[in-house]
């Protein structure tokens, strides 16, 4: 399975991976630029890669 669309859990928070770029490539235009391009709300780093992710909201439902 590839890295994109993978669900990862970090510190009890779930994230969906939207894209991965090398730090060297992404830093030319900056992570804020790429966050907008990928539609990400958070950027995580692992090794020499930036992971552009979206936080998955843990919704609780109650019957009314």
Please tag this protein with its features:
4 strands, 2 helices, 4-stranded antiparallel beta sheet, alpha+beta, 64 residues, single chain
Number of helices, where a helix is a run of at least 4 consecutive DSSP H or I residues: 2
The protein's oligomeric status is single chain
Number of beta-strand segments: 4
Radius of gyration: 14 Å
Strand order of the largest sheet: 1-2-4-3
- Helix-strand category: alpha+beta
Share of helix among residues? 10-25%
The first-to-last residue Cα distance is 40 Å
Q: Shape from CA axes?
A: elongated
Structural summary, described in words:
This protein is of the alpha+beta class. The chain has one domain. The protein has 2 helices and 4 strands, in the order ββααββ. The protein has a 4-stranded antiparallel β-sheet. Strand 3 and strand 4 (49-56) form a beta hairpin. The longest helix has 8 residues, at 31-38. The mean pLDDT is 90.
